[in-house]
Amino acid sequence: MSWLPLAHALAARQDLPVPAWLFAWGASIVLIVSFFALAAAWRKPRFERQHWRALGAGFSRAAVSMPVQAVCGLVGVTLLGVAVYAGLRGTEAPDRNFALTFFFVTTWLGFPFFSALLGDIFRPFNPWRAFGRVAGGAFRLVAGQRPAHLAYPERLGRWPAAVGLLAVVWLEIVYGSSGGVAVGLDPHAAGVAALVYSGYTLAMMALFGVETWCERGEVFSVYFGMFSRLGAFGVEDGRLGRRRMLSASTSWATIPGSAAVVIASIATTSFDGAQEGAFKGAIESVFESLADAGLGLNTALRLTDTIFIALCFAGVALVYLLGVRGMRTVQGAPSLAKLRDGFAHTLIPIALAYLVAHYFSLFVFQEQAQFGYLLSDPLGTATTDLFGTANSGIDFTLLSANAIWYVQVGALVFGHVLGLVLAHDRAVAYWSDYRQAARSQYWMLAVMVAFTCFGLYLLSVSNG
């Protein structure tokens, strides 16, 4: 999130208390020990069924009732409107404008974190879903029938959401780059992008239906909903209930393109963490070559970053597909396509771990700004003080550098262990012989170790 001035403060880290290579070695040991523990004790699948239970007839129905959804939808539409207005009419200073922090920190980072804990909390607040449902209801009221929608192409699946996820990150960290003259996404550009996306989303909802598009094509619904599958709360048949943690993730990747969504999440986070660290030299070299070839500085830098995002996506996909192909060699393995789709959900905890590791401190610090001076003066013009907090600041002493590092390492290790657990659970569901199931997971263990070491390497280079 290079547009934030506090990124420079976060980059001024102390020396790491323990060498990064030692953390990588220790993390690998944890994964190996976890692997053998699972192979010895975990012989039947435990997450293939959710074991869902309603929280209570009255509360569970009231929590998802139409009045509650209407209020939540109104809040979502209002916040989107404020953010767009701030982007279009507010200050161009990125650190003083409500829009950028709301779009790229509070929403883009906050919903994944809290969805993994509380379930799909974005769904009732989704402003486009709320608007689409109101428009659909108005159409039924006037026409006396439901609007006719096109049949959604099954093979298209969640690919629009995967491409959209890459586009959102590209807008923030690639389009926001400007050749070293000034770094940061323009708030006005963010406001225009939000309007364009709103028009596109509402058009797709009109064509294919609100719920269909939210399930498959709407970037934020798909992305946040993916992380919500890790949580213990979910809605079934209009009632809120509890389920076994992680269990809902096992059915998430049944729609084509789901694997691309989670791979895109890992790849874009990796690129954002590596562009000023591990990839810096290579990016500068390609950038200079393109600039020398006659491209403008902005064009050369954006093209360079686009190339490296694509390479990150291809690299993450390659590591995962190598693990899948390796499992295919084990006796009794299902088809390659079934393995590819069937194990995609095991990457969701890793995607969340990468988000926490790379953006935990940014979220903690910048939310002080969001609920302080930005909320009180959303336009950043110093002419309003709605809540009396326009002059508040950010307490950078809230987290020490060492505390941030330990959270980063802990998130990476814990996320990869969860991925290993989900992979083993799926293996014993696919192989009738638990010994063959354990043997197939040597490949996924290699994938998890590779992602863990890569994540720690990115952190150590960028933070060292």
List keywords for this structure.
single chain, 464 residues, mainly alpha, 3-stranded antiparallel sheet, 19 helices, 67% helix, 2% strand, disordered N terminus
Protein architecture, described:
By secondary structure, the protein is an all-alpha fold. The protein has one domain (6-463). Helices cover 67% and strands 2% of the residues. The chain contains 19 helices and three strands. Strands 1-3-2 form a three-stranded antiparallel β-sheet, covered by helices on one side. The longest helix is centred in the C-terminal third of the chain and has 32 residues, at 297-328. The chain is globular and about 65 Å long.
Oligomeric grouping of the chains = single chain
Order of helices and strands: HHEHHHHHHHHHHEEHHHHHHH
Tell me the count of domains.
1
How many alpha or pi helices?
Answer: 19
Structural class category:
mainly alpha
Question: Can you give me a brief rundown of this structure?
Answer:
The model is unreliable at 2-14 and 179-183 (pLDDT under 50).
Q: Which helices and strands, and how do they pair?
A:
Layout: H1 6-11, H2 20-41, E1 53-54, H3 57-63, H4 66-89, H5 98-107, H6 110-118, H7 122-125, H8 127-143, H9 159-175, H10 187-208, H11 210-216, H12 219-228, E2 233-236, E3 239-242, H13 258-274, H14 280-292, H15 297-328, H16 336-342, H17 348-376, H18 401-430, H19 434-463
Antiparallel strand pairs: 1-3, 2-3
Helix pairs in contact: 2-18, 2-19, 4-5, 4-8, 4-10, 5-17, 6-12, 6-17, 8-10, 9-12, 9-13, 9-15, 10-11, 13-15, 13-17, 14-15, 15-19, 17-18, 18-19
